[in-house]
């Protein structure tokens, strides 16, 4: 897979990370963070409800 990313955008992001971090590692971390945030938003959108969930005895 090839990605075309604006060099200015990469350089701006690199200002916020450890100077030893490679651009490739930065992109991996950005994608992982995006996935975590998206999963959290999807979970929050459920509002603590799961209509198909079986009743759990307590």
Can you give keywords for this protein?
58 residues; mainly alpha; 2 helices; 53% helix; 0% strand; elongated
Write the layout of secondary structure elements.
Elements: H1 7-14, H2 23-45
Compose a concise summary of this entry.
The chain is an all-alpha fold and 58 residues long.
Polypeptide structure, described:
With 58 residues, this protein is mainly alpha-helical. It is built from two helices and no strands. The longest helix has 23 residues, at 23-45. It starts with 6 loop residues before the first helix and ends in a 13-residue tail after the last helix. 0% of the residues are buried. The model has no long low-confidence stretch (mean pLDDT 88).
Rg from C-alpha positions?
18 Å
Major sheet attributes: none
Number of discrete helical segments: 2
Question: Rough shape?
Answer: elongated
Nearest-integer average pLDDT: 88
In terms of DSSP E residues, the strand content is: under 5%
Relative helix content: 40-55%
Order of helices and strands: HH
Would you tell me the structural class of the helices and strands? Answer: mainly alpha
How many E-type strands?
0
Terminal residue distance: 49 Å
Low-confidence sequence ranges: none
């Amino acid at each position: 897979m090839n990605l075309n990313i604006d060099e200015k955008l990469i350089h701006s992001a690199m200002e916020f990370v450890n100077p030893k971090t490679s651009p490739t590692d930065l992109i991996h971390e950005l994608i992982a963070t995006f996935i975590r945030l998206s999963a959290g938003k999807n979970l929050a959108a459920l509002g603590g409800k799961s209509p198909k969930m079986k009743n759990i005895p307590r």
